[in-house]
Task: structure prediction
Amino acid sequence: MHDIKYIRANPDAFDAALARRGLPPSAAHLIKLDEEKRNLQTHIQNWQSEKNKIAKEIGMAKGQGDQARVDELMLKQSVSASGVQEHEANLVKIENVLKGFLETLPNLPADDVPSGTDEHGNKEVRVVGQKPAMDFKPKLHDELGVALKLMDFDAAAKMSGARFVVLKGALAKMERALANIMLDIHTNEFGYTEHVPPILVRDNAMYGTGQLPKFAEDSFKTTNDFWLIPTSEVPLTNLVADSIVDEELLPLRMTAYTPCFRSEAGAAGKDTRGMIRQHQFSKVELVSIVHPDKSQEEHERMTACAEEILKRLGLCYRVILLCTGDMGFGAQKTYDLEVWMPGQNCFREISSCSNCGAFQARRMKARFKGKNSKETQFVHTLNGSGLAIGRTMVAILENYQQADGSIIVPEALKPYMGGLEKIGIGD
Result:
């Protein structure tokens, strides 16, 4: 959500930032709505003052026994009251229109975010690690998993339809192992506090992080009005909703391993094979709640934390700074981590780390106050995948595959796999 005070003070800068997002100017319209709102508020205050004044005069007239004056004032008060009600009804309408418009506008991009219309405008920041040398044609992860009899898409489809999978044996164990190594590193080495949050949330939680109202079709909703979380960013960030955090407690760093659910409404025909884009997947999420002066620094730190998992697993990856046309709705700056996939012969996104500034905090009324300050400020919120479990497994299968179709277990993962060194058929 945007600050209307900022828009009033900086209309040209606001429209210029929207233009970088590919959106038309909106400042003039928003300012006009805000002026109408403030004018109505002034009228209501004036009407209320008049009403109070009349009430005092009625009391005086009654005390003087002047019934004619009382009747005259009562009629005047009735007219005044109806005027207040009419203005209050109009105020509610204007407030809803203004709020409805504001909540559909994305966050403004940071100054150092490159301009662009789509992924072609993204900027490669760095490439880390070496692509594996293979003297055979690498297979896709789903070919490998099915051949190992540890990945079953047909069984999942019978129960649930497309974009689901059943993992068995060593791959089911790898799912758990990956979650454990990620959580251990993030909590023991990077200071994140592990949480087990709800995976069903109400409208207000989805609204707070920006999934509602604009992206309702991208998520699953139950028949009794709960939403299945698309990411644990939603419940973790909402832990500070409608609250004032002591500045001394910042930064708050949280992590959680949860299932996530996405309808993929806008992805028809895209990545239909394998585990790249599924309706249900697991992820270790990172969320930071920080002082506004520290959010840029925290963004670099969070990205480095996610990168460390890829380094420990020995996977080649690159860091991409997303352009204005490829960033998410709530982000003002985003780094994507893309891991090398030999079977696909390309880099694929495995993590997205975003600084949302005060955008989410303003929607969920999340503030902080210094020890010696009477004023509150909005916190800044950040989120990132640390990492997506399914895509990490995909990367391991494709990067550690052998000519016979077996999979070498990465060294760092072996202790979490009970010492297993290689995955073969039926393991």
Notes: The CA atoms of residues 215 and 381 lie 20 Å apart. DSSP finds twelve helices and 17 strands in the chain. The mean pLDDT is 93.
